[in-house]
Design goal:
67% helix; Arc Repressor Mutant, subunit A; 100 residues; 2 domains; mainly alpha
Amino acid sequence: MEYIYGALLLHKLGKPVDAEHLTKVVHATGVSVDDSKVKALVASLKEVNIDNELANASLAVAAPAHAGAGGAHAGAPKAEEKKEEKKKEEAAEGLSALFG
């Protein structure tokens, strides 16, 4: 997880998510760096737009919870519920690309 957190930190700071920078970040945490994990993560993130993936992840987290009986969604049609679940699944698929 520290590798992913390191990549997210580098991205947030506007630094390149490359092997050199990621190795420095992970090393700074006091963990021994596994070069193969660094290379694998950097390679998997090479063609990924991290901003888009984070936006999709935010949608999944920010989606309103379904209220119980008598709640705001009590009269909502089943089709809307299925659409919301599909959006959540699509967002989760985007995250899997980010986290390998």
